[in-house]
Amino acid sequence: MHNEILIRIACVAIPTILLIIAIHFNLYRKFFFIPNQIILWLQARMLRKVKAVKLLEKDTDFAPSSISDSEEFYLTNGNYEQNYENRNTELPDDILEEKVNCIRTYYNDILNANVINSILLESTQKGIVESLIEAYSFEAIKRNIEKLNRNLSSQNNYQFNGDKLGVYSYEKKNGKVELGLYKTDHFTWLVFKEIYRENKALFDELIFLLDQYNKKSKKFRYIFKCLKYLFSSFGLDISIHGYDSNKKHHFLLCARSGKVEEMKNGLIHVPVNETFSITDYEPESDHNLYCLHSCVKRGIEEEIGYRAKNISNANIEFHDFAIETFNGEIGVSALYTLPKSISIEQLQIYPGQDKYLEMDDLLLVPFPTTRNPFKLIKLVSDENKIKEYVYRAGKMDIASLKWLNFAHLVIQRSILRRLKLSIYGEYFIAALVNIIIVAVLLTWRYQVAETAGINPNNSFSVLNWELIQINGSYSHKIILILEEFIWWFVAAIGLEIGVTIILHNLKDRKNGKRRFKSFKPILPQWHGDVKVIQSTGFVKANKDANANLGLNFIITDPTNQPEQRISNFHLMQKPYCSIRKEDHNTEYPVSYFPISSKLDLYHDKLFFLLYQLEKYDISKLRVKFQVSYELSQGKIKIINCSFVENLTDLKIKIDSDFNSNDPFFKKCSEQHQDQYQNAQVGKLLIDAKFQLYDLLEYHGDFYWTVLNRPGMDQNAEKIQINQKHKPLYNKIIEALQKEQHNMKKGKNCKTFILEGDSIDVEKALNQFLAYDSNFNRIHPYEIMGLQLALVREDVLIADIQY
């Protein structure tokens, strides 16, 4: 009896312990990813074979890296401490010679180490160091600097020089990659990119020479160090995956504007493309450690508009740390997965600082769901198949654009890493395997019982001690005890299947609960009548700077008056917009508006729309709006509704100290020399409490949205909103009816303040705008401006079913 109890305890305890280990390490799921890993490996082998990509690490994480003050190299007359716009890219020969000597010294130090001196390159029939010193000669660098300066002065888009981080070494420690970094800038990278193109065979041979050596060997490290100046920029291609309001898996792509592409053609690319910068420091490091996680967060905030503070490091993965030979660039693919509580459709309406300058559209593509494994394999391995899938699944004409270089590969590999069975599919297969095991055990147990002369019907107890005692041999007893062990394990797996499905659903409800059932923007975000031209996003500036600094007016009609009303002018053409980066702490949008007072020639106008709204008490919101109505035959009829106040008394002040060598103004004047020959530049006179947010275009006119910071004028009747509020339209009518006896016949106006919890105000506004009759009472550009202003306060203006 004592032995029977011990065996029963063992049969319960051992499978349970093993099951806990399996659940803890997710072992039961890893089986389903084996085919994915095989395809990823085969892709990498194929790319290496055709010498397109050298994969350094397939799946990894990156540790924050420090930089000493001596680790920098610039082919301009400044460094990271100097204003970008004051750096001279046309260096005197003596200064350039000093910089070339720094390169020679660096390679001579490698030569003196005598680690790779014996290696002879096929492309040059010379040693590595000798070949590189020749490639980076004074003549080669000077020739390419002059070439770039000619090209930059002839291009029609604005240029700015920003700081970058280059890479000269890497080492993997404790499962994380540590990068050896140095400071440089965009112009320096452009020069070295041209030198790569002139010596492509040399650099490609060096890149794939790394394959011949172990990553921990000295030769590998020194060959990598030789590529320091080639790797003067570190790129990140960031994929974004998430779920829509219907809980369907989607991923994002973007249509990159031809304005920012080298060949001036729009291209399909990953939604976020960033370079590692000196602004990407670890938040707690006091600017001493540079972190790729921070780069991912900054990129998503600037190019998509989703706030960096809402992005968790746990949702960021790094894959495919590699060198590509199309441009000779080093970088890594990152994959960000949105929390399930955030619908991926929301990202369409967030205002990103670079979003509208660099994108023509943001594509929301359904994740592949085909059950045919052969189609899936083709989809994730054939370039044409993934492009065709995106075009057909997205059902958008713009998806027919050409794709940028390796964008299809980044997307395919992100799909592979997210391609898995649903939890129900996984457990269906697990249950099927368990049923097969149970059937085999039942058959075997029946045969054993029959052989032992026992009634098989009595052999199905949880632990048949009688059967064990009759079979006297130890081998039979061990087999029968093992059988009981398997029975308990199968039972525990079955229990785990049910419990895990329940816990998965509870977790999904707790952590992935959505605020709404469906989501759709009220207005087209890219191809409607209202277009967003520029957005301040979430401005990064020092304490003395703000987004208003970048607004300039080019006045083509010279005047002696130091100040003039802005309403006296009309736009000559669409404004020039870009981002100004004066230093690594100050960055803000910049725009130039060519204007004229000649009404007979130019008719487009520029307006400034003031929105009065504010968050208070953490979760509460106030929004001010005005209603125009009329009293007709004893009934009140709302004519229109407005959320803005038109700032008509703003003035322009002539900037007598304006620097005509400003790169943005210089570009404008070079393109229109006849019009800008005697032009003056003016600045907007606007109260410091007003903050410019978004520039909109609507039927040829332009509108800057303005917010009153801090606070708002509360001199108006308040409409309180709560969870059980009546429709906003009804509350407005009720408020007006109280004053009906004092109303004048004809048109009247009244101002209200909508007030309550943010979510309740959001619901009230969306319900109000959902009715076509109310929607038509408001100008579309006002709705777009309201949407962009409120989303910064985490309030969504959209067609939402809660």
Overview of the structural elements:
The chain is 37% helix and 26% strand. The longest helix is centred in the middle third of the chain and has 38 residues, at 474-511. The strands form 6 sheets. Strands 1, 3, 4, 5, 6, 7, 8, 10, 11 and 12 form a 10-stranded mixed β-sheet that branches. Strands 15, 16, 17, 18, 19, 25 and 26 form a 7-stranded mixed β-sheet that branches. It has 23 helices and 31 strands. The chain is of the alpha+beta class and 802 residues long. It is flat. A hairpin with a 3-residue loop joins strand 21 (613-616) and strand 22 (620-632). Mean pLDDT is 80; it is low at 458-463 and 539-545. Helix 1 (2-24) packs across helix 17 (474-511), helix 6 crosses helix 7 and helix 15 packs antiparallel against helix 17.
Ordered list of secondary-structure elements with their pairings:
Blueprint: H1 2-24, H2 27-30, H3 34-49, E1 53-62, E2 65-66, H4 93-113, H5 128-135, H6 138-154, E3 163-173, E4 176-185, H7 186-198, H8 200-209, H9 218-226, E5 234-243, E6 249-256, E7 267-269, E8 272-275, E9 289-290, H10 292-303, E10 316-324, E11 329-337, H11 355-358, E12 359-366, H12 373-379, H13 383-394, H14 407-418, H15 423-451, H16 465-470, H17 474-511, E13 518-520, E14 530-535, E15 551-555, E16 563-565, E17 570-571, E18 576-583, E19 586-596, E20 606-611, E21 613-616, E22 620-632, E23 635-642, E24 644-646, E25 651-654, H18 663-671, H19 673-676, E26 680-685, E27 690-698, E28 701-708, E29 717-721, H20 728-737, E30 746-757, H21 758-770, H22 772-775, H23 780-791, E31 799-801
Parallel strand pairs: 1-4, 5-11, 15-19, 20-28, 29-30
Antiparallel strand pairs: 1-10, 2-9, 3-4, 5-6, 5-8, 6-7, 6-12, 10-11, 13-31, 14-27, 15-26, 16-25, 17-19, 18-19, 20-24, 21-22, 22-23, 22-30, 25-26, 27-28
Helix pairs in contact: 1-17, 4-5, 6-7, 15-17
